[in-house]
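Long-time lurker, finally posting.

We've been working with AraC-like DNA-binding protein (Marinisporobacter balticus) and I want a structural starting point before designing mutants. I don't trust myself to interpret raw outputs, so I'm hoping someone here can both generate the structure tokens and explain anything notable. Sequence follows.
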Amino acid sequence: MNKQLFLADTQNQLSFDDMIEKIENIDNRIIYHYNKNYMYGKTIQYEMFKGIWIVYHDLALKRSDLFPLEVNGFIQINYCISGRCELHYKNNKVFYVGAGDFVVGLLKNKQYKHSFPLGNYNGISIITTEEKLDNFLKTIFPETKITSKKLLLKIEECDEYIVLSNNLEIKNIMEEIILSNHDFWKEKAVIKFAELILLLISNDIEFYQLTGKYYDKQLINKVKQIKQEVTANIEVYTKIEEIAQKYHISSKTFADCFKAVYRKTYYAFIKEFRVKKASELLRSENLTIGEVAIRVGYLNASKFSKAFLDIMGVTPICFRKNNSLTVLD
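Top reply, 14 upvotes:
Generated this for you. Predicted structure of AraC-like DNA-binding protein:
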């Protein structure tokens, strides 16, 4: 696969090779294992057809400042299994792809940046060019008049991106392309990819427009900054109304944008963050349950215990009993 498909964050001057710790070749598949200084997980890829790459990502980022750049001229198809991907759209707009979402775009005229706001991503990509897609279609359907132009026109009609959410037919096709254990898995992938292209250019599926689905980049950056400050001072419980007043942003705008970025409401996210922080303290610090509660912003120990039970499935006392660190640990 062309390494230019996954460039480094220019600010950090990281190369593709910097993030790879080990490469394996198994049954015509290339498996990239990442350097744990940057991320955990792996990427599996293979060339399904000349110039058509199937890529499976299972990533957990250790560093939040990794922003791979896409390169011009590629048709890219993405299906998110879990996690969340932030895609930078035109005119400083940003939109999000979450579990069950499917996106097709033509990367042209500029470099497109993406990142993973939840720190993890599991998904499937298919990467090719107009020329290689045309060669594929002529090989599979020798007498066809179908060309890549039909797909590109669909993308243009949808204002640069075809977007589908939780479509069962798409889900089945994408997962069979990469996860099949069939003896003829590569041949089956070719058939499923042809089926996918026919489905995309047909009139059987309605795609939704990005209008109303994207957010201004400056607003996104402000919400991320607020999230960093709130989580860095988790012992202070901050309400949305207080955030709105302090950061000069409407409560509704903040709430909507926060949920778009982090998939959860602000209050659900903070509740989970506080409990996860508390679990770390219970494992590593010799503090009472009440002291731990205060450290993560709960003034009422019983409310803290209930929140902990909701998230972790056990009480703080039971968690500490089963998870305390020992000298041997």
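Before you design anything, note these points.
The first helix runs from residue 16 to 19.
Residues 1-13 have pLDDT under 50 and may be disordered.
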